Amino acid sequence: MLQRLLLILAVGFTTTLALPGHAEVSPQAAVESSVEAIIDALKDDALDKETRRQKIRAIISKRFDFRAMSQRTLATNWKKASDEEKEQFVDLFSRLIESSYIGKIEAYTDEKVQYPGETVKGMKAFVKTLITSSSADIPVDYRLYRKDDQWLVYDVIIEGVSLISNYRSSYQEIVKKEGFAGLLARMQDKIKELESQPAEQPA
Amino acid sequence: MEKPITLILALLFPVAGFGADAVLLAYAGDTNLATSHDGGGPVMLAESGSSGTSATDDDDEDMSFLYDEDEETIDVYDPLEGFNRGMFWFNDKLYFYLMKPIARGMRVVIPEPLLLGMRNFMSNLGSTTRIVNAGLQGKFGDAGNELTRFVVNSTLGIGGLFDTAKYNFGIRKKREDTGQTMGYYGIGPGPYLVLPFLGPSDFRDGIGLFGDYYTSLVPRVFEGRDYWIAKSIEYLDIIALDKDTYEGIKRDALDPYLFVRDAYMQHRRSLIEE
């Protein structure tokens, strides 16, 4: 009897686990888990800088859909680009975003994050967060969409400024003046520059 | 003028890279460098009619449903780009060679609570600008909140040094200025404009600075030369409290000028839509 009960429990448990998170995980919970994981990594003194960055990078790339972001950033230029160009862009763009995002969060280690609310509309969701530190409160909101059983971020809105829209207008202008190859070259230079210099800035 | 300084900042440190930087941009519109930038949220929320179901299996094209009508690229009208880039360069040098070194020194000498108190103090004096402009836009609730904040912070907050209204009563500041009021009544931004010392702006917001100046208490409290001294200190104070936002932009953006420009225009638009 007991065995059977245990079996039922075990089966029940595993099936629950196996079920796609679907309805269960709210977009806010998704954002929250990633943000908390990043903060934990930041606070973990046992990690050396490089390991910490790798850890954060892994958390980010799990939650951010860089392909969707790239597509939205390039907008019409995405359709015109060849497959290789697209791949190359996604790769460069994700490295740029990761490195600047990581640089930023490292500056705000004293922050606390509040979650004032979320809005879900079909496949899309909008999650608000408020980063509070001693010197400022910064609203950082995320747009997410559901892909299979996961909520993925495809835009970040800081102080009312959408990251994607902002990159889009700058990049469009560069493409207009220097062509797509020019944009890729600039991105490569920037990444080289970022990777060659120490990540932290002088205080 | 009250906003200018703020603008500087803005200009100087606009929004940012990713992450936390937009902070200062925030200040751009904010006549009174605030303690809290709250309320910034819902702007972009409008989830325009999500054309959501059009998803096909084609991995490439099925993302189209992610495009929202409300966030189409803003085409920035920038006929003065040559001049603006010159001013941007000037402000950049001003920041790195003058303001930043001083601000760094202030940070060493002045304890953070005092830096925050100075910022709160100046922000409190700008309450009148926010009250007037919220009122002019028919946002009487916001105007009332700002009035309450002003009274509470001027008294319990000891002349505005403490943001008691926020910390003890949960009433947060909301940015309002003359440029936003003009935008509310349908006046477009006009050409983008980088002002020397003051940073990113546009024709409408530039004109709005006069309105901000006349509605602010800062020029009443600090007259003549003292005004410019007070504004300079306010500016330095904000830089001292900032975490290298502008440095981050310089480091990350492919073209910092474009990044700042587009962020400024987008930020102002979101404030006006609020």
Written overview of the protein:
The complex is a heterodimer of chains A (about 200) and B (about 270). By secondary structure, chain A is an alpha+beta fold. Chain A has one domain (about 1-195): Roll (Nuclear Transport Factor 2, Chain: A), CATH 3.10.450. Chain A contains 7 helices and 5 strands, in the order ααααααβββββα. Chain A has a 5-stranded antiparallel beta sheet. By secondary structure, chain B is mainly alpha-helical. Chain B has one domain (about 5-274). Chain B is about 60% helix and about 5% strand. Chain B contains 13 helices and 2 strands. In chain B, strands 1-2 form a two-stranded antiparallel ribbon. Chain B is globular, with a radius of gyration of 19 Å. The two termini of chain B are about 25 Å apart. Mean pLDDT of chain B is about 80; it is low at about 1-60.
Task: Produce the secondary structure layout.
The complex is a heterodimer of chains A (203) and B (274).
Chain A: H1 2-18, H2 27-43, H3 49-63, H4 66-74, H5 76-80, H6 83-107, E1 112-121, E2 124-132, E3 137-147, E4 150-158, E5 161-162, H7 163-196
Antiparallel strand pairs in A: 1-2, 2-3, 3-4, 4-5
Helix pairs in contact in A: 2-3, 3-6, 4-6, 4-7, 6-7
Chain B: H1 2-12, H2 23-29, H3 81-109, H4 112-125, H5 127-136, H6 140-155, H7 164-167, H8 178-184, E1 192-195, E2 199-202, H9 203-215, H10 218-221, H11 225-241, H12 245-252, H13 256-273
Antiparallel strand pairs in B: 1-2
Shape of chain B: globular
Query: What would you call the quaternary organization?
Result: heterodimer
Largest sheet of chain A, in brief, is:
5 strands, antiparallel
Put simply, the count of helices of chain A is 7
Largest beta-sheet characterization of chain B: 2 strands, antiparallel
Q: Write down the Rg of chain B.
A: 19 Å
**Which CATH C-level class of chain A is it?**
Alpha Beta
Q: What is the general shape of chain A?
A: globular
Radius of gyration from the alpha-carbon trace of chain A, in angstroms: 20 Å
- Per CATH, the architecture of chain A is Roll
Q: Largest interface, and how many residues on either side?
A: A-B, 63 and 62 residues
Say how many strands of chain A there are.
5
Q: What is the name of the CATH topology of chain A?
A: Nuclear Transport Factor 2, Chain: A
Structural class of chain A: alpha+beta
- Strand percentage of chain B, roughly? under 5%
Which bin fits the share of residues in helices of chain A?
55-70%
CATH homology group of chain A: Tgt2/MlaC
